[in-house]
Design a protein that fits this description.
alpha+beta; TIM Barrel; 3 domains; 8-stranded antiparallel beta sheet; 8-stranded parallel beta sheet; about 15% helix
């Protein structure tokens, strides 16, 4: 791996760590088989790999513009091979690692180089083959991006793993380390060794066969201990045809000249906003977040700010209920939940008002949590629910019986889900009845304990001997209570969300509970499939790509997801102290994850305009946002905004910055200056609409100025 653009060529492949092109993985033995011989057919552009277990793989190689494409065409003697792994490809790069999309980055001016991979099909996922349930644990790893500036203390070593902080329930409390060498992990597509060197890998799994996993996204916390889960087999989904792009380029060009080229060339998801790729930094734009219940001026505010979306956050959750067929306000739009002094509006009516200004509206969801009282949950539960375990009923029972004897008690003592282990969600399904229980007897006959029949207002029924008992996979409490769908029903839920957009004029979602997509044991594949189904349905309706944020970010959502605005206040970016997270490390942690993975950094629900707000505050916020490449959700409470003496000046300030950002007017060297929180800036409109003057302020006085212009090519 060499950078051919400099002399002498910089070598990035460590001599002591050879990189296998591809490995095979035996899941039962938890063993990797590495290649022992490679043969290249130059005429056919094919590589034959012989493995230590006797398997032989045929891999096609295509040299594309700025990347290599590898595809697994066939594999002999594949019995026992659960998955294949591309790599790990080891590098000697020690700066930034993108654990979500798989990239090793040296962002220094001296080196300025990146090496990465991208999956070219849905069943090729970021991570290693031994990743349980195809979603890597959420945890900290020790890694210093610059040992000279951030040396490790003697008590720590590169590559060490630590659990998260907090109680495992309050997600803000997870973020417990402000030290720059504590790096939170949202995947394992890139990892570091004990020398801080970065390796990258992707994997693909045979999903056609039955398997069981012992899974938790946060396995090292008592409140989130793993559960045993029978993973649903998916016919026709296996690793033959697995394909990756391998690339290397100057880091400063990687996103827009290489990754974008791969995405377009390979037909990968390419959502846009204002006709720009959502990963294009000039397309980044904050959102308005309505708060306070009154919406008379929210469209006007949003238009003056130059924003494109209003999140109706105070409307609460959209719960997926296929019973309403997407008509969340009724078939005749008779519900009018959006409050205006002149008369309340339905979503459709309010969306039509906003559309006149080029603005879309959005809602927060609970993703795939099938809540009680909705079509697929109760009072008549669907037969397409995800289950953890399947057992048999030993004796027939009447509607009044609470003595339920099972043929096998294994794992039935585990409490609901892996997330929070909410006792009130511990239930089984027999036929069309949901039944609560908690615990199982220790000796024969094995009976369920603390049984409550007809749970969630389902109807107690007679059940025959040997009827199937399904221990259901569920979510967690705090308003997220719900059942998890199996894959076929999840496909329908994805289509439902697109229907809601089409029918009601919605163009934006906040997928709260986004991690529920992992609860079926298919991890990042599940996320890719969900968003693909939603986007395909939206395209069928002829509506624009749905813009969305969510509770998490993964290799499964990276291509589709526009932004990641979670949390807020002093946990994210504190404008008063000018630091990333003054109360917790959440701001620092999420900044490091997103920036390393070529994704817009989120500043959360933040910076509400109120009586004390000043232009200087928002000039600083916008400078950081443009310099680093961030978005945020600006909370707008009509009463609070109207109390602000400088509201119009603030609107104009933000709008000026946003128009300049959209015009790609900030070169790389200027962006670096803007990220310094100690500096103060003011941006003024230039002689025409495509020019601006950026002034640095010293003690409130203009000190140095930079002329900026619209740039179509940067």
């Amino acid at each position: 791996m060499k950078n051919s653009l400099v002399s002498p060529n910089l070598e990035f492949s460590p001599a002591d760590k050879p990189s296998p092109l591809m490995c095979l993985y035996d899941g039962e033995k938890e063993t990797y088989y590495k290649p022992i011989k490679a043969t290249f057919n130059e005429k056919g552009k094919a590589i034959t790999l012989d493995f230590s277990n006797g398997s032989v793989a045929q891999i096609s190689l295509e040299t594309k513009n700025k990347y290599f494409k590898f595809t697994l065409e066939s594999l002999s003697q594949s019995e026992g091979i659960e998955g294949i792994q591309w790599g790990p490809y080891h590098t000697n790069i020690t700066n930034l690692f993108g654990e979500i999309i798989g990239v090793a980055r040296d962002t220094s001016e001296l080196v300025n180089y990146a090496i990465g991979m991208l999956a070219l099909d849905d069943n090729t996922l970021g991570g290693t083959s031994e990743t349980i349930a195809d979603a890597a644990p959420f945890q900290y790893i020790i890694h210093s991006p610059d040992p000279s500036r951030y040396p490790l203390p003697d008590s720590l070593q590169e590559g060490q793993i630590f659990t998260l902080g907090g109680d495992g329930i309050n997600d803000v409390a997870f973020y417990a380390h402000k030290e720059p060498y504590f790096r939170i992990m949202y995947g394992n597509t890139a990892t570091v060794d004990d020398k801080g060197r970065i390796s990258i890998n992707y994997q693909s799994r045979d999903r056609t066969k039955k398997r069981e996993v012992y899974y938790s996204l946060i396995p090292n916390m008592a409140v989130n201990t793993p559960n045993h889960l029978e993973v649903q087999p998916l016919p026709g989904i296996d690793y033959i045809g697995s394909s990756i792009a391998l690339w290397g380029s100057p880091d400063s060009l990687a996103l827009m000249e290489v990754i974008q080229n791969i995405v377009l060339s390979e037909g990968l998801p390419y959502p846009t906003i204002n006709e720009k790729w959502i990963k294009d930094p000039s397309a980044f734009v904050p959102d308005a977040m309505a708060h306070g219940g009154l919406n008379d001026s929210i469209i006007s505010y949003t238009s003056q700010l130059g924003f494109k979306t209003i999140s109706l956050w105070d409307q609460g959750f959209v719960r997926p209920d296929r019973g309403d067929e997407g008509y969340i306000d009724g078939k005749d739009f008779e519900r009018k939940p959006i409050q205006l002094t002149s008369g309340n509006k339905s979503h459709k009516e309010f969306a039509e008002m906003a559309a006149k200004y080029g603005i879309t509206i959005g809602r927060t969801t609970i993703t795939t949590a099938l809540a009680p009282g909705t079509k697929d949950a109760s009072p008549i539960p669907s037969d397409s629910l995800c289950y953890q375990q399947k057992r048999l009923l030993v004796n027939s029972i009447s509607p009044d019986d609470t003595l339920i004897v099972v043929d096998d008690p294994t794992y039935l003592d585990e409490i609901a889900s892996w997330e929070g282990h909410a006792e009130n969600l511990n239930m089984i399904k027999i036929g069309k009845e949901l039944i609560y229980y908690l615990g199982v007897s220790e000796s024969k006959p094995y009976r369920l304990l603390n049984v409550k029949r007809g749970y969630w207002e389902t109807k107690p029924l007679h059940h025959a001997k040997n009827d199937t008992i399904y221990k259901l996979q569920v979510t967690l409490n705090y308003g997220y209570d719900g059942l998890i769908p199996n894959m076929e029903l999840q496909d329908k839920i994805a289509a439902y969300y697109a229907d809601v957009c089409f029918i009601n004029g919605i163009g934006y979602y906040d997928f709260d509970g986004q991690e529920f997509l992992f609860n079926n044991g298919h991890g990042y594949y599940s996320a890719k499939r969900f968003f693909r189904k939603m986007f395909e349905r939206a395209a069928m309706h002829g509506i624009l790509p749905i813009r969305f944020t969510g509770a998490t970010l993964s290799e499964g959502s990276w291509h589709y997801q526009s932004i990641w605005n979670v949390g807020g206040g002093k946990n994210l970016y504190d404008v008063e102290t000018r630091e990333w997270g003054s109360t917790t490390s959440q701001g620092k942690d999420l900044r490091d994850v997103t920036y390393a993975n070529f994704f817009p950094v989120g500043m959360g629900r933040n910076f509400a305009i109120n009586a004390n707000s000043t232009v200087e505050q928002y000039s600083h916020i916008q400078a950081i946002s443009v310099g680093l490449g961030t978005t945020y959700s600006l909370e707008l409470n009509q009463k609070e905004v109207e109390s602000c003496p400088q509201k119009y000046e603030i609107f104009r300030t933000i709008s000026t910055w946003e128009h300049a950002r959209s015009a790609n007017a900030f070169p790389r060297n200027i962006k670096k200056l803007l990220t310094d929180p100690k500096r103060n800036w003011i941006l003024e409109q230039g002689e025409n609409e495509d020019s601006w003057i950026l002034h640095e302020l010293k003690e409130g006085v203009k000190n140095k100025s930079y002329a900026l212009h619209k740039n179509e090519n940067r």
